[in-house]
Amino acid sequence: MATACSYFKFELIQGDRTGPRLxxxxxxxxxxxxxxxFPVGTVGTVKGVSCSELEAVGVRGMLSNAFHIYLRGxxxxxxxxxxxxxxxxFKGMIITDSGGFHIKSLAQHTRVTPEGMQFSSPFDGSxxxxxxxxxxxxxxxxxxxxxxxLDVCPSYPEGEKEQEHATRLTLQWYERAxxxxxxxxxxxxxxVQGGFDEALRRWAARETVKFGFHGYAIGGLSVGEPKHLTxxxxxxxxxxxxxxxxxxxxxxxxxxxIVTAVEIGTDLFDCVIPTRNARNGTLYTWKEGVIRIRNSxxxxxxxxxxxxxxCPACAGGYSRAFLAYLYRCGEMLALKLLTxxxxxxFQTLMNRIREAVKKGTFGELKTQVLDLFGED
Amino acid sequence: MATACSYFKFELIQGDRTGPRLxxxxxxxxxxxxxxxFPVGTVGTVKGVSCSELEAVGVRGMLSNAFHIYLRGxxxxxxxxxxxxxxxxFKGMIITDSGGFHIKSLAQHTRVTPEGMQFSSPFDGSxxxxxxxxxxxxxxxxxxxxxxxLDVCPSYPEGEKEQEHATRLTLQWYERAxxxxxxxxxxxxxxVQGGFDEALRRWAARETVKFGFHGYAIGGLSVGEPKHLTxxxxxxxxxxxxxxxxxxxxxxxxxxxIVTAVEIGTDLFDCVIPTRNARNGTLYTWKEGVIRIRNSxxxxxxxxxxxxxxCPACAGGYSRAFLAYLYRCGEMLALKLLTxxxxxxFQTLMNRIREAVKKGTFGELKTQVLDLFGED
Lengths: 376, 376
Prior knowledge:
The structure is a homodimer.
Chain A: E1 8-14, E2 22-27, E3 30-34, E4 36-39, H1 51-56, E5 61-65, H2 66-72, H3 75-80, H4 84-88, E6 93-97, H5 100-106, E7 108-113, E8 116-120, E9 127-130, H6 132-142, E10 146-147, H7 160-180, E11 187-192, H8 198-209, E12 215-218, H9 227-240, E13 247-249, H10 255-263, E14 268-271, H11 273-279, E15 282-285, E16 289-292, H12 312-315, H13 320-328, H14 332-359, H15 362-373
Parallel strand pairs in A: 4-14, 5-6, 6-10, 10-11, 11-12, 12-13, 13-14
Antiparallel strand pairs in A: 1-2, 2-3, 7-8, 8-9, 15-16
Helix pairs in contact in A: 6-7, 7-8, 8-9, 10-15, 11-14, 13-14, 14-15
């Protein structure tokens, strides 16, 4: 049994085109069992947490952002130092996002032309142009385990014409991106766009598959559209995608979203939810659902966040009262401890999902998660 | 050989009234070799660093602030949870400062009366009154290893009359503080004040000694007076203090200050320098002296902060370029890694000082430190 490969390989172990699946990703430093959840480490690290702390709570990979690293880092130096893994000292899997979504949402004076994206840096106002080819080259310089092609994400709501235009332009860019590849063994996932119309999404999925990517990300969802539409579109896309390749739902989600998406054949997730919510003082637990460290009741609560939890905050014996006090004092340490708790919760959730799919008890777990966290 | 005691015991191993000394502090959780340096953990934790990380870089104690914890924490809960150590999960030594200095420097609408200090909280504007007795009770509730009495610190420059008044009032408060003690075995150090006149300082030292404290802190120095005056006053105080008891210089200092103060008979130090400077991007090294992570040369520097250093940042292989990038991106992780490096540097400095005093080579070490960091 192979336990690693040069960049990225997905093996489907159980399941089919839709319905809960089990699989595994082989990459340079080991194996990631799927369904899996990766936190977001935009600049190459997860906010407030070192890579050894990430590994200690079971995190096996992260989603970083080529756009941010390109604008703020020193690409030549990162290349000379042997790539992003070596620069940030992470042995887990790193997927780099292309920046298509972030250029649209963060940059200023953005102009999307057939050639690529023109924009001003949100950090220093400098003017930049990124083409589909350049975005491939950046990610190959970073030597991430998986690169993603430059895409155009329609906002919600947006007109039919605009959605179709964005979808067609994205597909044209994929052709150019594929031709720009110089590291063919680096993982390269197509991103299925296609806006909010089911037929357009299905068509986009089929067209994206024609490029022969190593697997498929599903992008442009959870950007304001109703939740039932999100999952209707996700199911439609999953029905179109080849079953033996990975399906990676980008930017989602809450525990209730993850179980719903796993149920319809999704393998991989990334989201800022566990880390951003931790920094806002919102914590996930298996007995009380979501709790908030800023609630006044926390000030007097001598218990840990969750009895029996093995995360560094709970296993370290830090009381809710102490964490609330640290948070109130504006201490960074609070943010780290809360982040580690939530990351550990999400890893536990994924462990339980895989266990339940294996045992055929996924339905019960899904009910438990929806009862705890609601459907929305 | 005893390796712990109920709260605090100092043993002088080598040296005398002045000149470099070696000693050790026995406290509930072990031994601290002196000369020693403690970082400042105002609210009970050192900014950005967990207690297990502190211990990993060799930190054996910290200075916390009763004033901050009283205003922002929940004293009753901390008492119920078994004291500050248990609340913050630190097994090292905790000295709690009385707040005299911080009420004067941080609080608003402060009025010093013969009864105590009236002030408004800098956090929520609430009005408070703290008496010398109350400050003892707060620290006994916190159950720190060492408490300090409420004192009045003259500013620099301040008139002779004001300095003498502050000194006399402080001594009156020590009498009340001693009478308020309910935990006589908790370490209790007198703070030698006395402003900036050598005769007044000497008198204050002799008067403070009459109260029979477990040892002596030297306060009110390094608040703007010239450096030669600081050390002239410190030497005068050390000459007045009993040689068998600890001398703890509060709020200093830089490496060059520490070696200078050790040379004239000082045992213990606390300062924000390693932690605050780290957060400002200023780092201590043994080969290049002080370096600044914000310097543009750092962006391209693939080396660690200091080759051969065993701190988590250097031993973790984080390049200067990466740390500069993280710092530029405003990532908390940068502050933690830089803080750990500086804390490790200060622990190494104290190790080298003790080793040099033992071997009789302290003069050479002092020259090396002054050459690296200057005299001021």
